[in-house]
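new request in #modeling-help
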Amino acid sequence: MSDRMLTMAEAVREAMSIAFDERPEVFLLGEDVGIYGGAFGVSGDMYHRYGSERVLDTPIAELGIVGAAVGAALSGMRPIVEIQFSDFTAQAMDQIANQAAKIHFMLGGALHVPMVLRTPQGSGTGAAAQHSQNLEPWFASVPGLKVVVPSNPADAKGLLLASIDDPNPVIFLEHKLLYKIPGRDPVPEGAERIPLGVAKVVREGKDLTIVATGIMVNKSYEVCEKLAAEGISITLIDPRTISPLDMQPVYESVEKTGRLMVVQEGPAHAGFINEVIAQMAGSSSFGSLIAPIKRLAGMNIPIPYAPQLEKAAVPQIEDIEAAAREIVKNWR
Amino acid sequence: MSANPLLMGHPLASTENARHALLYMCRIRKFEEAVEDLFGRGMMHGTMHLSIGQEASPTGMCMALTIQDQITSTHRGHGHCIAKGADLTRMIAELLGKEIGYCGGRGGSMHIADVETGNLGANGVVGGGIPIAAGAALASKMMKKGTVAVSFFGDGAMNEGAFHEAANLAAIWKLPMILFCENNKYGMSSSTEKAFAIDNLADRGKGYGIPGVNVNGNDVVEVYEAAQIAVDRARKGEGPTLIVAETYRWKGHSRSDKNLYRTKEEIEEWRLLDPIPKFIARAIKQKKLTQEQCDGIQQEATDAIVAAVNEAVKAKAADPAGLLDAVFKKVSA
C-alpha cells in the first residue's frame, strides 16, 4: 500500500506522464505549458522530460488551440489540451460544444474525438469574475461531452488516465485551490484507472446524505467529521463525473438517511446540482425523504474580488455545517 | 460506386486526367441540380447550400491530393465531398435521411464526412473546419505521415477568429496545410466589398508570413497548378499556403435567399464564365478530349446521379431507435 501524499497538481502531472510513457500519440498543448510549466505548475518539468514536440507551447488562441486538438484527435493523436482558466473556454466554445461534442454523433459515427480538455476552475484566489467561475453546467448540458470533476489527487490521477483512454471528448475540471494541497488519501503508484461514470461514497452515515462536487466535497468532509463528534452521521457522495452521472449510490443512501443536501460552488440557478435534485424527485427513492431537499450553491452573481465578498459568494464550511445541522434537527 | 480518383495530376496531362476533371465537375453540377430538384419536389427537408458555378475549385484542388490527404469542408460542401471521391448514393441517401446515408440521417447536407477519402467533414459553423484542419496537419507532422490537410472555406470565414487563429498556428508550426478560400463574393448577403477593407483577400497571407495566391476559381487548370505548388511546399515541410479562388455561386445562399443583394445582370455575367464549357473548349483544343467524348462524360455524370438518387430513394429511412447509443463512441474494454 502506497503512502505517497501528492498534491492534485502532482497527481495530474503523474497521470499525464504515465499516459505519455504508455502511448506515443498522447501530447499536451496549451498556453505556457512548456518552459513555464503551466500557469498553475501542473505540467511542471514535463517540457524538459518529453521535449517541445510533445509539450507544445501555443500562442494565446483558445479557439485555435482546441480546434487543433480536435483535428489532431480525428487524425490519430490523443491530445490533452490545457486551457489556462476555465473562463477562457468561452473563447473556444465553438470547438468544444459545436465540433468536439457533436462530431461522433452528427457524422454518423465515422469519426470520434479522443481529446481531454483540462482546465482549472473555481473561486478563492482573488482573481475576480473572469478568472474564478465554476462552469460545470456549461459542459454538463452539452450531449457528447464527458465531464469530470475530481475532488482529490488520487481520484484525479485515476480519472485522468481513464479520460485519456476514452475515445470521446472529456472536459476535466480541476479546482485551483486543490492544486497545492495534499489529499486525505495517498496516491497509488502504477497506472490504475478509475472508470468514468462511477460515483464514490466518501463516507457513510445514517442521518443525512450530502452530494457535493469538486472542492465542495472537501468542505463537506470537514463538516462530516465535525458533526460526527456531535452524533450526527453523514453519508458523503462525490459523483466524480457529472456526465455521465451515477445516481444509484445517491438513491441507496437516501433510502437509509431520508435526508438529502446537495452542495455546489457554481450559482444555484440552472446549476449542475439541480440535476441531482431532479433525478431524485423522479425516482422511487423520493418517497424515502422525510425532509425537503436542501440546496447549497453559489450566489447568482459574478464572483467578486474582495476576500470577504468572494467568500460570501460561494458556500463555505460554516454554511454547510449550519445547513446540515438544521436539516437533521428540524426534520425527524 | 466507390471512387478512388485522387492524385490525378494536371487536368490536361492526359486524356484520362482531362476526363477526370470534366467528369467530377459534371458530377458536382448534376448532384447540385438533383438536390434542388429533390428539394423542389418536397423529398428533402431542412435546407441546402448549392455550389453550382464553383465546381472547378474543389476539382482542381483535389486532383493535387492523395486519397490519404485530408480535407475539412463547409456548409456548401457537396462539391468538396464529391471531388475527394465520396460515394454519391450515400451522399444522396444522407440528404434524404436514410440509414445508409453517410451520417445515418443524423447529420444531413452540412455534416457529410468520409473517412475513406480523408474527408473530415463538412461543417455547419462558418470557419469551424479551419482549426480542425490545422490539427489534422499537426497530427500529420507529429506522426510523420507525409499527408497534407486542406481546409475549404468561403470568403465569409476569413473574418472569423477561427481563420486567424488557425492560419497563425499553421504558419508558426509550419504545418502541411492549405487554406483554400472559395471567394464566391458573398457571405450570405454581405459582399466582400462590404466585409473587407482590402481588395485582394490573398493579401492576408502576408499577415501570417505565408504565401497568399489568387487564382481564377472557375478555371480547373489554374486551380490545380496553384494547388500543386502549395501541396509540394506543404509536403516539404515549408508550411501552409493561402489560396484564394475567385468564383461565384449562381444560386442563392440557401433556400430562403431572394437575391435582394445582387443584380440579375451580375449573375448573368458569371454564368457566362461557367467552368465546365470553358474546360471542354480547352481540352478539345489541346486534343485531350473530343466533343463526342465530352458529351459522353456529361451523360455519364448524369447517369451516375440518377442511379444514386434511385438507389437512395429506395433505401430504408433512418430509425430513431439507436439515437441515444450514438452520442458516444463505445469505450472498448
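bot summary: The CA atoms of residues 136 and 272 of chain A lie 6 Å apart.
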